[in-house]
Target: Bifunctional NAD(P)H-hydrate repair enzyme
Amino acid sequence: MYGAWTPEQVRDAEQRLFERVPEPTVMRRAAYAVAVHTARLLDEHTSGVAARHVTLLVGAGNNGGDALWAGKFLRRRGVGVTALLLSPEKTHAAGLETLRRAGGRAIEAAGPGADTSGIGADAADALERADVVIDGIVGLSARGPLRPLAAELVDRVEAPIVAVDLPSGVDPLTGAVDGPAVSAQVTVTFGGRKPGHVLGAGLVRSGGVELVDIGLDLGEPELTVLSDADVGAGWPVPSPFDTKYSQGVVGVAAGSANFPGAAVLTSGAAVHATSGMVRYAGPAADPVRSRLPEIVATGSITDAGRVQSWAVGPGIGTGASGREVLRQVLEAGRAVCGDADVITLLAGDPTLWDARDPDAPLVLTPHEGEFARLAGDPGGDRVTAVREAARRYDVVLLLKGNSTIVAAPDGRVLVNPAGHAWPSTAGSGDVLTGIIGALLASGLDSWLACGYAAHVHALAASLAASGDGQGVGAPIGASALLEAVPEAVRTVRAAA
Ligand SMILES: NC(=O)C1=CN([C@@H]2O[C@H](COP(=O)(O)OP(=O)(O)OC[C@H]3O[C@@H](n4cnc5c(N)ncnc54)[C@H](O)[C@@H]3O)[C@@H](O)[C@H]2O)[C@@H](O)CC1
Ligand SMILES: Nc1ncnc2c1ncn2[C@@H]1O[C@H](COP(=O)(O)OP(=O)(O)O)[C@@H](O)[C@H]1O
Ligand SMILES: [K+]
Model:
């Protein structure tokens, strides 16, 4: 498990740290780590460190200061260092001095001989010669997209980039990118990850994140990211004294005559995710029986028998029959995972919420379009949007995406950064619904159930796509993802 802390939390912790350790000492610690990772990258790309060339993009604040200090440490290893100053008059003075004393060169990015881009001739040359570029344009204090000169410089870079703290152009709090931004090979960050490293475009732009301890005491994180080991340790498996009933029975209300596949995928996922028993109730009972003989299938919810949870929504339609299915499931007073048409129905008719038993956990798993129907466009700050909607509707809300966000009504937020896009295939959401339904039936806390399910779902997709999680991937369908769920569960349990 690891956390991500907001810029405000990091700044507060920095202030506390500076009461004990002088600020320049902390900055040197941070910059030294940037230099170490830059040297590693140089070695990877050029099979050496000495006599290689590193160009620093240096903005107006301490982020640029870190880059300048890193340049000084690289000089010690014989690296040629050129700093391009974006705001020469606001450059971190001590950093600049130390780089110069170490034999580094510092020039104005917008120096003489500038072409229409505004980049000076020497600066353009330094960018072209760079084996690695260090991005010290902006860090924790970033606001909005890169300014024009910074954007032009970044656009010119062809060498791999080491970002200091955050890739510039990424919003530290939301991970949103609204314009030009750095795509880093490695991001070296200090004290703790920021939300911008694990959310949205920021996740992709950060590359590999290297966390450096600078002595910050950060407190409770804003966001939590689960590891394989966390998920494996909590994944429900049968004990010697369990029966198929005691582990929790999952009810699946999904699919229709037009969409039997949704029924098969949701039910199949529930079968693979946990032991115990899965009941299916709906018009696709025949295809479900023929594909999944272990499922007890009936035509209607009233005939389904006792369950501990319902996974409901995929393919049920938004007409009268879908509405009736939802009403019956909500009235059953069991834990519910509602997906797809359920969300559209609840968004369109607020009276449907009245059927809900307030004591039974309710999870909703919208994709972005469904979320917009329910709570409006999530915009760039998805965490805030999801957290507010979870509170307003008193549900656990899982917003799907490359980084999936799970918010509880009490404000806790989990993020699952997939790290790849293999789950982006039709029907994979149905699989997720089935996994969550199964975990709810086992009695797991519904917020954690969503986090566990999102983690295993993404892992199953990666295992299915790559054969063993290591090889080059190939596109998969939701059926392959479904079949890989047991291997994903094995993988996380082995890590626990
Ligand atoms: N406080 C400290 O001593 C420590 C801070 N650290 C570094 O300090 C950084 C934070 O430094 P600062 O608070 O000085 O701020 P930054 O260096 O993040 O930003 C400085 C300035 O960049 C400009 N800027 C903002 N948005 C921009 C954009 N979109 N395009 C171009 N320029 C933009 C603004 O003028 C802003 O004031 C951290 O990210 C980290 O790298 C580390 O050295 C660790 C210790
Ligand atoms: N680009 C992506 N990267 C990683 N995961 C993705 C991406 N796009 C979608 N997903 C995941 O795939 C699943 C798609 O669900 P959904 O949109 O409901 O599809 P469907 O309705 O076809 O089943 C979700 O778990 C979502 O998080
Ligand atoms: K940066």
Q: What stands out?
A: The chain has 19 helices and 18 strands. The mean pLDDT is 96. Residues 14, 23, 26-27, 30, 59-64, 66, 137-147, 150, 164-165, 190, 214 surround NAX (ligand 1) (CB under 6 Å). The longest helix spans residues 23-46.
